[in-house]
């Protein structure tokens, strides 16, 4: 991967890790876990998606456990939640914005890394991007004993999928430029925020006449 | 792997993926998830077992995210559940038959792939077959917030284990023929259906006198 | 890895596997699972941490599915729980001691294996040790539908982290001797037991004035 993409990827990873650490920490605080519980859940939410990405594309050990910058960002997010959570909760709407930022950062960073790894087919790169984006949240919710947001929330997986497709197409066409990565992340971010704002939901199944 | 085994494996994988997608979709419909929730749960149930198999034997990226035929089968199963679920629910007994078919297909496909992969010991191949067969269902149930069927249902893991052992022994003896794969799948299928029909259960622990 | 470390690692693995199999089996017995449910949960708890370790450092297939000695120890622990659980429950305090032993054994075995594997950075080795130690318990609790102990219990992750750091530092300094492995395990064991005995907990978040 050219140097500038590598640095963009690290920046995207750092943003995603920190933001998801905040989300994991907040869930833990709400469940009244202790300091270590908060840190564990923050780190699991922050690093889980990237670890799944790296295991799926054969990059072991995953950067999520070997890069001290990502680990520090995760721990920092957890600590911030623990000590500042009244403030963070008050800015609950801001957190939803941050969460959309994390989704956007990880969708782009995941699909970029997969698409530029030898032997990963384009379709696999798209799915790896999606898994990177939603994986940390799934782990967070499973550990905390709640149904994963990706299964119940307004359009959540779709923006991530969209961003992954854009990045992989750009890589495959050989036209990817730095600014396009940030534009793709911005696209995911915007679509997700519009979905939240408008409370857009996918259709639910028709009620079956057989279940009364 | 000889070509004919490869095609048999793909056929078995496709059957297993489609059937488990139906099962995942049905669980999601019952939980009133929206369209994307249904698709996510269907794909997770359909592809999860095969992804775990490939990660365990070092085949990355797993075919579950790189083969468009498997992905299409999973998505198709999810969509079918979403749009046709009243019909599918009415044929609930048929679904249990299909589920047994998925278990059978994945037990054989998982153990076959592992046993024919360089560096995988026979005992590991048996366990990989078992994990492939039950893994998707475990992921489905964890995501949906219910205790995995493999832990509470009438003989579920045992038929899969049996089929895996048969396939691995045949591979090790060098006597495997195409028809034997289908016979092994048929064996798992039959044992599982008999267990369902007769409501066969493994014994439960004796009630302890110390807990009243 | 020198032969003597390999044998120490196997011994530590066997201890950890057997003890966590007992813990998984006891949880399954309490949930009234049948024989196969007990065996499945015992094996998942016993082998899960080691499988995660090996996948993270690229050792596939993981020894947790390829080494019959570990598999036998896991199955034996599950069977023991199933048939002897009244006795095991009566010695509940002894089980907590055993569990601390498992945590200690896996923290040392996990960090040792990772630190002596080519291409694993020290910081990654520490985290792999931690994940090995707590991973099986997390899988056990997720499958059984309860919040993982690592998130809610008195100092649980900290002793494991401490042991991992000690082992990795010793490996990096090139001064590791056999007896130090056992001393590190003893340290984890002791710290964990003291935490249990004194009911030491990490601080919990301040109650937020915004939530009444």
Automatic annotation (TrEMBL), chains A, B, C:
<comment type="similarity">
    <text>Belongs to the UPF0126 family.</text>
</comment>
<keyword id="KW-1003">Cell membrane</keyword>
<dbReference type="Pfam" id="PF03458">
    <property type="entry name" value="Gly_transporter"/>
</dbReference>
<keyword id="KW-0472">Membrane</keyword>
<feature type="transmembrane region" description="Helical">
    <location>
        <begin position="35"/>
        <end position="56"/>
    </location>
</feature>
<feature type="transmembrane region" description="Helical">
    <location>
        <begin position="121"/>
        <end position="143"/>
    </location>
</feature>
<feature type="domain" description="Glycine transporter">
    <location>
        <begin position="11"/>
        <end position="85"/>
    </location>
</feature>
<feature type="domain" description="Glycine transporter">
    <location>
        <begin position="97"/>
        <end position="170"/>
    </location>
</feature>
<feature type="transmembrane region" description="Helical">
    <location>
        <begin position="6"/>
        <end position="28"/>
    </location>
</feature>
<dbReference type="GO" id="GO:0005886">
    <property type="term" value="C:plasma membrane"/>
</dbReference>
<protein>
    <submittedName>
        <fullName>Putative membrane protein YeiH</fullName>
    </submittedName>
</protein>
<feature type="transmembrane region" description="Helical">
    <location>
        <begin position="179"/>
        <end position="198"/>
    </location>
</feature>
<feature type="transmembrane region" description="Helical">
    <location>
        <begin position="155"/>
        <end position="173"/>
    </location>
</feature>
<dbReference type="InterPro" id="IPR005115">
    <property type="entry name" value="Gly_transporter"/>
</dbReference>
<feature type="transmembrane region" description="Helical">
    <location>
        <begin position="68"/>
        <end position="85"/>
    </location>
</feature>
<keyword id="KW-1133">Transmembrane helix</keyword>
<keyword id="KW-0812">Transmembrane</keyword>
């Amino acid at each position: 991967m050219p140097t500038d993409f590598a640095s963009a990827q690290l920046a995207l990873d750092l943003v995603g890790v920190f933001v998801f650490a905040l989300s994991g920490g907040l869930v833990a605080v709400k469940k009244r876990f202790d300091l270590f519980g908060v840190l564990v859940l923050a780190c699991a939410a922050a690093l889980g998606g990237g670890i799944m990405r790296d295991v799926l594309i054969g990059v072991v050990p995953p950067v999520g456990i070997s890069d001290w910058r990502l680990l520090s960002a995760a721990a920092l997010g957890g600590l911030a939640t623990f000590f500042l959570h009244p403030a963070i909760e008050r800015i609950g709407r801001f957190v939803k914005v941050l969460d959309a930022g994390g989704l956007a950062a990880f969708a782009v960073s995941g699909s970029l890394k997969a698409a530029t790894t030898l032997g990963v087919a384009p379709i696999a790169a798209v799915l790896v991007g999606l898994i990177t984006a939603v994986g940390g949240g799934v782990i967070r919710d499973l550990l905390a004993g709640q149904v994963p947001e990706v299964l119940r929330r307004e359009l959540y997986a779709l923006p991530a999928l969209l961003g992954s497709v854009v990045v992989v197409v750009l890589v495959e066409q050989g036209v990817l430029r730095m600014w396009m990565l940030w534009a793709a992340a911005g696209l995911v971010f915007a679509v997700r925020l519009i979905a939240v704002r408008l409370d857009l939901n996918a259709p639910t199944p028709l009620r079956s006449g057989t279940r009364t």
